[in-house]
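[#protein-structures] MJ: dropping DUF58 domain-containing protein here for a structure pass
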Amino acid sequence: MAKQLAAALGYVGLCRGDRVSVQALGPNGRNAPVVRSRAALWKLLKYLDGLQPAANQDPDANVSLHDGVKDFVLRGTSTGVVVLITDLMDKEGYESALRMLIGRQMDVFVLQVLSQEELDPPLRGDRRLIDVEDGDAAEITVNQHVIDRYQETLKSFLHQARQYCAQRSIMHVLVPTDTPIETVMTKYLRSRGVVR
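AK: finished. structure tokens for DUF58 domain-containing protein:
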């Protein structure tokens, strides 16, 4: 879903005559193409197609949201529109990363992408959960009480993220991964001013 969103938004930007750069956070962001015309859209798509989660390559290649945004900000010299596609679920928090983007006088949009399994976990029974980003593991027993507490915590997290963004004039949009990309682009993003 994140790749589809990046490709679709990049295409919209190119249709408007904007200069577009799609960058992964971390080491893969350093070789991201800057595209200036629809004829060069293939470069953007090829870059996106080649991106893999860092955990699939080298667990040590993972970067925190803070460090990834810091690297992005230090490499960039221009202001403009930044669309951050993320789940915002970073153990160090998301606040400092968003403050850095605002500090560069950028118009910031956050597309928070969460899977249906994250929004409504189908798990029950004894489980060993492994964080794919850093390998941390936890043994838990999942029952209705645990699911209810998870739902309360998630609801609070999403509310805090929306509130944090709203207070700083950051547009925040929750994007469930089971939503068709056409619906996201035409309904969610257009109604919130991300896409015109």
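MJ: nice. The chain has eight helices and seven strands.
AK: one more thing. The longest strand covers residues 107-114.
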